[in-house]
Design brief:
YaeB-like fold, 96 residues, globular, alpha+beta
Amino acid sequence: MKLRILPSALADLADGRRFYSRQDQAAGEYFFDSLFADIDSLLLDAGVHRKIFGYYRHLAKRFPYAIYYKVEGDTAIVWRVLDCRQNPTKNRQALK
């Protein structure tokens, strides 16, 4: 399996990193590293997660974030990395 991370997902990760860095610089780095570890796990288990809004949704292990992705051929394409604490309607709109 291959991974492709779209610019929209990278922007989501940067936003999350900024949010946690405002609390503590180390927390921002830990967030970034943790979410990338969760994304890397898709190399092994892409396609086994529940589908929500037409995307597979992988819940992050350490932070309240969800990784939304699609599988095309042998590639997992990460579309968005969204905060689960937001209104579900906002997340649905972000995935359109």
